[in-house]
């Protein structure tokens, strides 16, 4: 019995002790009391250990897990001269209610200002309103000719991972630009990342659809075949091998993309594959319903076999993280063009649903609580330069704690708090497992399933260049 902090004096006061919960660790689950001081975990105590604290929180019947890390969000995202219908307060409030305490968003491209300026502006935007901690992947495009000279500077400022597109005419990097930018990023120890789809394959597939007049939402998956993902992943993996750099692949959608990732990993390339909640929880039957417009997402949701293969990749570590790819378009913007998928903005909200959906589906597939924590937070923290500050319940880590009620029922109508103007991808779905209390750096932001956080309390995360 006693203190497991490795030397923490028992007479030192703590700000808070979370009592009577079951802590989920990489090795399993164990009943421990968790002490917090100055925003960090200050001690792990045997249950009932006497210790001074200004406050206590009862976690009887609850699991204590590290706050979720969402690796892929688009909050208050600019598109077509407007923005999505959320903002940094509403989106991060929704994240907290779902059990996510860290989001990694993006710095939009803008060739009219320098890369450091647009990174700084995005931090200021989030800093004013966010209620969970946040970091950013800057987006690089060939149009920003000055970006290469500033990559080292923004990496030093904590923007250590980047996103490039191998498709979309207004932002794509061709093979030569990809090689150049990867080389510069790797020289400074950063992590190059890609939306990886071969542009020419997508153009050919869409051209066939236009000629045959097959452009309804049901036709959408065929416009972005898995082969396009696989080819682009092979290309950037070859570059990564030659440069000796890791590479991050955003939103891997199915088996063809996974096959390319697996081949590269067998060859010793450090390919970090991310997938998204919707690819793990849905299949292409969604494109045959009256509300198929909801599911226009890039890359597309694929077949049941692809979904099952993604879960296999989660279990064996090929998939290192799960993002929501949250992009809160208004329902009116999504549903206006059912006869021409080209006109529907690709993306959907999902920041609040990510963790509950993962918990429910993981339990259905027999994953342990430790495996759930690995994929919802720990591996992401390791890969993106946040570990050991984030992603674990351990002395010295930020006290990002989710007190999880494994018996609390939910239905997908609950997951709309980012904006009443948007919609749920998971309509009609239900499950069990939701947060009861959520702490960000020791501060309660959700108490008894009700948001109690402070606008602007989230902090920018300067990430390091360790990519495990």
**Structure annotation, total helices:** 12
Q: In which range does the helix fraction lie?
A: 25-40%
Instruction: Give a count of the beta strands, DSSP E runs of length 2 or more.
Output: 21
Q: List low-pLDDT spans.
A: 6-11
CATH architecture designation of the domain at 67-383: Alpha-Beta Barrel
User: What amount of the residues lies in strands?
Assistant: 15-25%
Based on secondary structure, the structural category is: alpha/beta
Name a few traits of the molecule:
468 residues, alpha/beta, TIM Barrel, 9-stranded mixed β-sheet, 5-stranded parallel β-sheet, 12 helices, 30% helix
Quickly describe the structure:
The protein is an alpha/beta fold. The protein has helices at 88-98, 115-127, 147-156, 175-187, 199-212, 226-243, 255-266, 277-281, 304-316, 331-334, 354-364, 369-383; strands at residues 14-25, 28-37, 40-45, 53-58, 63-66, 68-70, 73-74, 78-79, 82-83, 100-107, 133-138, 164-165, 193-195, 247-249, 271-276, 319-323, 326-327, 401-411, 430-440, 443-447, 450-451. It has a domain at 67-383: TIM Barrel.
Write a structural description.
The protein has 468 residues and is an alpha/beta fold. The chain has a domain at 67-383: Metal-dependent hydrolases (TIM Barrel). 30% of the residues lie in helices and 24% in strands. Strands 1, 2, 3, 4, 5, 18, 19, 20 and 21 form a nine-stranded mixed beta sheet that branches. Helix 3 runs parallel beside helix 4.
């Amino acid at each position: 019995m006693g203190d497991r902090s490795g030397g923490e004096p028992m007479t030192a006061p703590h700000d808070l002790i979370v009592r009577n919960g079951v802590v989920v660790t990489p090795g399993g689950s164990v009943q421990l009391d968790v002490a917090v001081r100055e925003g960090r975990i200050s001690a792990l105590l045997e249950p009932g250990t006497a210790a001074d604290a200004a406050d206590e929180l009862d976690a009887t019947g609850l699991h204590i897990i590290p706050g979720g890390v969402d690796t892929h969000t688009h909050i208050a995202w600019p598109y077509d001269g407007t923005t999505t219908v959320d903002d940094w307060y509403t989106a991060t409030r929704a994240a907290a209610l779902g059990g996510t305490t860290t989001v990694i968003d993006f710095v939009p491209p803008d060739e009219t200002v320098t890369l450091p300026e647009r990174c700084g502006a995005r931090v200021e935007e989030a800093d004013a309103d966010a209620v969970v901690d946040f970091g950013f992947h800057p987006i690089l495009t060939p149009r920003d000719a000055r970006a290469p000279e500033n990559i080292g500077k923004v990496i030093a400022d904590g923007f250590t991972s980047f996103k490039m597109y191998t498709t979309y005419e207004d932002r794509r990097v061709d093979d030569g630009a990809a090689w150049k930018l990867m080389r510069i990023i790797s020289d400074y120890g950063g992590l190059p990342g890609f939306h990886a789809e071969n542009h020419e394959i997508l153009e050919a597939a869409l051209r066939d659809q236009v000629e045959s007049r097959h452009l309804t939402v049901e036709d959408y998956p065929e416009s972005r075949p898995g082969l396009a993902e696989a080819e682009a992943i092979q290309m950037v993996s070859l570059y990564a091998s030659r440069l000796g750099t890791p590479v991050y692949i955003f939103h891997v959608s199915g088996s063809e993309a996974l096959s390319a990732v697996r081949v590269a990993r067998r060859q010793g390339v450090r390919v970090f594959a991310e997938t998204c909640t919707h690819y793990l929880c849905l299949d292409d039957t969604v494109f045959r319903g009256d509300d198929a417009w909801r599911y226009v997402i890039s890359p597309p949701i694929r077949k049941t076999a692809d979904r099952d293969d993604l879960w296999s990749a989660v279990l064996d570590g090929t998939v290192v993280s799960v993002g929501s790819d949250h992009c809160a378009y208004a329902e009116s913007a999504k549903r206006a063009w059912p006869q021409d998928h080209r006109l529907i903005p690709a993306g959907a909200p999902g920041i609040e649903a990510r963790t509950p959906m993962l918990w429910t589906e993981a339990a259905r597939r027999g994953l342990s609580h430790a495996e759930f924590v690995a994929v919802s937070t720990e591996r992401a923290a390791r890969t993106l330069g946040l570990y050991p500050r984030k992603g674990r319940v351990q002395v010295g880590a930020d006290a990002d704690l989710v007190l999880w009620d494994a018996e609390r029922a939910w239905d997908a109508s609950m997951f709309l708090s980012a904006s009443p103007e948007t919609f749920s991808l998971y309509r009609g779905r239900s499950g069990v497992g939701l947060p009861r209390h959520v702490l960000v750096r020791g501060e309660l932001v959700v108490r008894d399933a009700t948001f109690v956080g402070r606008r602007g309390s989230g902090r920018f995360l300067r990430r390091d260049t360790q990519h495990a």
